């Protein structure tokens, strides 16, 4: 039986308690895997890892982050069949529904946010450029008025 692990600090780790609980397929009622019976120690480790990661992540450029969104969207598409099966089994829905709606939508959501980052970034850069040009023109005008 497959044992799912916690993903903490970039690693798949067992629950600190070592305990697992059954993970049921809602459509069949059968156990198909075991999931960690995580506790407060696991949560604290995950929060600490997230706070630590945020320090470097928050300093990455928007371009870097938006490029990661596109890579993630592509990976979802690359592994769509595995994800369709996992989504179906985990939620008890037909694979046809996961194939038609859930997995393509997951990929499209990441692409949507990539484009939002891109449009916002370019719009902001254009705005800042125009604002800088306006400031320079005002400065030139002010210098001209002072000289008069």
Give me the secondary-structure topology:
Elements: E1 2-3, E2 6-8, E3 11-13, E4 20-24, E5 31-36, H1 40-57, H2 62-78, H3 80-91, H4 95-147
Parallel strand pairs: 1-5
Antiparallel strand pairs: 2-3, 4-5
Summary keywords:
148 residues; alpha+beta; 2 domains; two-stranded antiparallel sheet; flat
Helix content: 55-70%
Counted by DSSP, the helix tally is 4
How many extended strands? 5
| Sequence of secondary-structure elements | EEEEEHHHH
Strand content: 5-15%
User: Which spans of ≥5 residues are poorly predicted at pLDDT below 50?
Assistant: none
Main sheet attributes: strand count, strand direction, barrel closure: 3 strands, mixed
The average pLDDT is: 87
Could you explain the architecture of this structure?
By secondary structure, the chain is α+β, with helices and mostly antiparallel strands. The chain has 2 domains: 1-59, no CATH class; 61-148. Helices cover 68% and strands 13% of the residues. The chain has 4 helices and 5 strands. It has helices spanning 40-57, 62-78, 80-91, 95-147; strands at 2-3, 6-8, 11-13, 20-24, 31-36. A 3-stranded mixed sheet has the order 1-5-4, with no helix packed on it. It has a two-stranded antiparallel sheet with strand order 2-3. Helix 3 (80-91) packs across helix 4. It starts with a strand and ends with a helix.
Give a brief outline of the structure.
The protein is an alpha+beta fold and 148 residues long. It has helices spanning 40-57, 62-78, 80-91, 95-147; strands at residues 2-3, 6-8, 11-13, 20-24, 31-36.
């Amino acid at each position: 039986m497959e044992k799912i692990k916690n993903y903490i600090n970039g690693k798949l780790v067992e629950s600190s308690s070592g305990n697992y609980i059954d993970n049921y397929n809602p459509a069949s009622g059968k156990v198909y895997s075991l999931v960690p019976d995580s506790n407060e120690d696991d949560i604290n480790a995950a929060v600490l890892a997230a706070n630590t990661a945020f320090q470097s992540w928050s300093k990455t450029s928007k371009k870097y982050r938006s490029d990661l969104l596109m890579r993630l969207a592509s990976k979802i598409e690359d592994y769509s069949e595995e994800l369709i099966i996992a989504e179906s089994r985990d939620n008890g829905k037909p694979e046809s529904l996961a194939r038609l709606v859930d997995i393509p939508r997951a990929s499209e959501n990441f692409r949507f946010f990539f484009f939002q980052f891109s449009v916002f970034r370019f719009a902001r850069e254009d705005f800042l450029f125009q604002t800088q040009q306006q400031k320079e023109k005002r400065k030139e005008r002010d210098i001209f008025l002072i000289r008069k």
